[in-house]
Every structure is written in C-alpha cells, then in structure tokens.
C-alpha cells in the first residue's frame, strides 16, 4: 500500500501546495476573526480602490490570499490544483518560474482592476459632485438610475421593490422641491453611496488563476479537457478563448449587483500572455 495514498497533497507540487494551504488557512482565520471578535479582516487585507482611505500598498499581495467564501475558494484552488501543478513540474517551468508567473499575473490582475474601477469611480464622483452642487429631484433620480440601479457600480437588483422607496421619496420631494429636509436626506444618500463604492475591497486569487489557465492553454493548446457544464470535451486553447471572451463580455456588460471582478480576470490573462511572450522571446524552454 502506498503510504501517501491517503494524503491529498502527495501529488502536489511545492508552490501550488503552499498557496492552497495559505488560502485555506486565511479563510478560516477570516471566519474566526469575524465570528469571535467581530473583526473584518477582509476590510484590512482586501484590495481597496486607491480613492479609499482604507487603501494600503500591501493589499496588492494580501488580497491574493483572501476569498469571499468557501465556494469562491474551492473553485480557485481546484483550478490551481488542476493546472498549476502541471506548469510547476520541472520539465515545464519548475517552482521558481511558476511562483514568479503566479504573482506577476496576480499583481497584473489587480492593476487592471484598479484602473477600471478608478475610471468608474471617477464617473460616479463627478455625477455626485454635480448633484451636490445643485440638488434637485430630477438630478437625484438621474444619479440613481445611472449609478445605483444599473451597471457594474449598481448595488440594487432589477427588483422594482428595492427601488420603490427611493422613487416614492423623489415623488414626495418633487412636490416640495425647496424642503431642506428632503435635500439633506438626498445629499446624505449620495455621499454615503460614494463612500461605500470607494470602500468595497476585491479579494481572491482569481486573476492569478486565470493567468494559470491562459498559460496552460498556450503551452498545451491541443490537450483535451472535459468541461463540467456542459460535460463536453474541449481543447485547452479553445477553453481559454471561451473564458476570455466571457470575461470581456461580462466586464463590458456588468449588471447591477454583479460583484465579480471581470477585468481582474482579464488582467491575469493579459499579463500572463505578455510574460510568456517575453520568456519565449528569450528562447526559454517551453513545452
């Protein structure tokens, strides 16, 4: 009997194994800190928008080991296990190169995500300032419909029940446009919303994992993989194309309430592609 047969880590490579262990440990620590001390570790270690007062440079690294829940962690680590351990094999990249690739793609994903979210936040801040300078019911409604009810910045679903109290407020304010109480309430809502948008952190290794998927597709383009949904075989190169197209479409057409960092996923793939091309140009041995 193989003494390692019961060990789930027996056929893992070193870097992949350690990344998975750290990520599992961090999810447990996050849960324990929240439940026992009421301490939100995600707010400290998740990557915040640079406009947020909670942004810290170290979050570029720490957010890679934080996850939003068990399923988020499982899918990322399962993908890393399936594809990362192959890339880390000595005859492919080895541990040092894989480690370098993983963190560069993770950082690249964070950079692209922050670029996109800063552009989005700048638009929200401009709209908020415009309203705060001249608060009217019509401008308040425009701000809500553009920023709160739709798009990737939206926080309310398409369910009309979630919007009704705000529309009722606008209707009441419209009948008394100079009412100071209504004006202050609307201003407070907008200011609170802007502050909330700036303080939403991104967590997870998804950007780096998408970089790993991209690398597997480039190095082993004709290897056939079996998808889970639907259960059909597909070559690795086509899988990467499909995943990339889905993330690009989703990122450009984000619905209200969509909390997936699609451009972070794309960032991991883009930086991974660039890095592999650089290594190939240097005539490194790829298989």
Ordered list of secondary-structure elements with their pairings:
Elements: H1 14-37, H2 41-45, H3 59-62, H4 70-87, H5 95-133, H6 137-148, H7 160-174, H8 180-198, H9 206-219, E1 224-226, E2 233-235, H10 236-252, H11 262-281
Antiparallel strand pairs: 1-2
Helix pairs in contact: 1-4, 4-9, 5-6, 5-8, 5-9, 5-11, 6-7, 9-10, 9-11, 10-11
Helix count from the secondary structure assignment = 11
Output the structural class: mainly alpha
Strand content: under 5%
Biggest sheet strand line-up: 1-2
> Which series of helices and strands comes N to C?
HHHHHHHHHEEHH
Number of strands: 2
CATH class identity of the largest domain: Mainly Alpha
What count of structural domains? 2
Shape descriptor reads elongated
The CATH superfamily title of the largest domain: Rhomboid-like
**Arithmetic mean of pLDDT:** 85
CATH architecture of the largest domain: Up-down Bundle
Major sheet characteristics:
2 strands, antiparallel
How helical, in percent, are the residues? 55-70%
**What would the CATH topology of the largest domain be?**
Rhomboid-like fold
* First and last CA, distance: 33 Å
Radius of gyration: 23 Å
Low-confidence stretches: 1-6
């Amino acid at each position: 009997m193989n003494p390692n047969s019961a060990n789930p880590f027996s056929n893992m490579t070193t870097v992949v194994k350690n990344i998975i262990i750290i990520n599992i440990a961090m999810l447990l620590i996050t849960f324990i800190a929240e439940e026992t001390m009421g301490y939100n570790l995600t707010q400290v270690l998740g990557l915040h928008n640079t406009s947020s007062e909670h942004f810290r440079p170290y979050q570029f690294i720490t957010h890679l080991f934080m996850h939003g829940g068990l399923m988020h962690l499982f899918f990322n680590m399962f993908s890393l296990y399936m594809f990362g351990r192959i890339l880390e094999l000595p005859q492919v990249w080895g541990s040092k190169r894989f480690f370098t690739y993983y963190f560069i793609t993770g950082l690249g994903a964070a950079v692209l995500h922050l670029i996109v979210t800063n552009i989005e936040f700048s638009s929200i801040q401009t709209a908020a300032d415009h309203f705060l300078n001249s608060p009217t019911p019509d401008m308040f409604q425009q701000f809500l419909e553009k920023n709160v009810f739709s798009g990737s910045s939206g926080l309310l679903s398409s369910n009309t029940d979630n919007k009704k109290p705000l529309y009722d407020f606008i209707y009441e304010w419209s009948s008394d446009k100079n009412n100071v109480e209504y004006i202050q309430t609307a201003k407070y809502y907008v200011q609170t919303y802007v502050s909330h948008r700036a303080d939403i952190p991104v967590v997870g290794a998804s950007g780096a994992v998408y970089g790993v998927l991209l690398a597997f597709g480039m190095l082993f383009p004709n290897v056939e993989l079996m998808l889970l949904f639907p259960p059909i075989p597909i070559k690795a190169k086509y899988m990467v194309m499909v995943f990339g197209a889905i993330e690009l479409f989703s990122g450009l057409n984000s619905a209200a309430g969509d909390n997936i960092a699609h451009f972070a996923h794309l960032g991991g793939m883009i930086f991974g592609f660039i890095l592999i091309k650089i290594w190939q140009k240097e005539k490194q041995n790829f298989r």
